[in-house]
Amino acid sequence: MSNQEIVEIMDIPFNKLTQKELLQQHLYPRINSGERTYIVTANPEIVMQAREDATYKQSVKSADYIIPDGAGVVIASKILGNPIEERVTGFDLMFKLLSYAEKHNLSCYFLGAKQEVNDRAVNRVRSQYPGIRIAGSHHGYFNKDKDASVAEEAAASKPDLIFVAMGFPRQENFIAANQHLFEKGVFMGVGGVFDILAGEMKRAPRAWIKLNLEWLYRLIKQPFRWKRILKAFEFMFRVLIRK
Ligand code: UDP
């Protein structure tokens, strides 16, 4: 990947591709050739976590693509003088991949969230994409020492797309440590997306997202997350002082 396509933000190399470029020039061809692909959709909190946790940093940096999911990352790239054109959210990327899977008879695996949330999320995918193949699913509440056996069970179903919704840092650590057990597949950590699919959580309204206020919407809905928002502010502060 050339330097022009990357911007380093606090030692995390972000891809500067638009969603369209990422899908059409990279992900679809890699899916078609059966190349294993690991995508991290990183927001400021993930960058800060990587700064504080060397193992997690390694898990993130071992990804094939680190995508700017978070208005703060896009703003930081502009401050650093190497601007990212657009924010590419894990949420939108997952739905693009699901549409592609439906059209091309690909199979998907859904790992994460509570059992009933996982079931409802998979049912929602089934009804929204009737042609899609579900390779399998598993809830996300198991001990770390079961990681390899859960991964082996998933790998045996030979999925083309593996969505891991266990929140960070768990999901990236899981993917980085276990993707070698799969012969192919696009791996992506998708955080709370199964909760949204299951109707447990609402995504911020489009207008808020456009105004870069998705973080504020989440703070209002889940005030216990205030510490994470502080991390996002610390991220902006650190970018500014580095500049
Ligand atoms: N989760 C899980 N296993 C765990 C902890 C969390 O499967 O050990 C799930 C949780 O039920 C939720 C998602 O992971 O569906 C975390 O969502 P969150 O919005 O916290 O994601 P983040 O923004 O932290 O990536």
Describe the structure.
α2 packs across α12. The chain has a single domain, classed as Rossmann fold, CATH 3.40.50. The chain has a six-stranded parallel β-sheet with strand order 4-3-8-7-5-6, with helices on both faces. The protein has a two-stranded antiparallel ribbon with strand order 1-2. By secondary structure, it is an alpha/beta fold. It is 50% helix and 16% strand. α8 links the parallel β7 and β8. The model has no long low-confidence stretch (mean pLDDT 95). The chain has twelve helices and eight strands. Uridine-5'-diphosphate binds next to α9.
The CATH class = Alpha Beta
* CATH architecture verdict: 3-Layer(aba) Sandwich
Helical run tally: 12
Specify the overall morphology: globular
Gyration radius, rounded: 17 Å
Q: Major β-sheet, in short?
A: 6 strands, parallel
What is the subunit arrangement here? single chain
Major beta sheet, strand line-up: 4-3-8-7-5-6
- As for the CATH topology, it is Rossmann fold
| Helical/strand content category | alpha/beta
Mean pLDDT across all residues, rounded? 95
Relative strand content: 15-25%
* pLDDT < 50 stretches: none
Strand tally: 8
H/E element order:
EEHEHHEHHEHEHEHEHHHH
User: What count of domains describes the coordinates?
Assistant: 1
Helical fraction? 40-55%
Briefly, what is this?
The protein has 12 helices and 8 strands. The protein has helices at 19-32, 44-52, 54-61, 71-79, 90-103, 115-128, 147-156, 170-178, 193-197, 206-210, 214-221, 226-242, and strands spanning 6-9, 12-15, 37-42, 65-68, 107-112, 133-138, 161-165, 186-189. The protein starts with 5 loop residues before the first strand and ends with a helix.
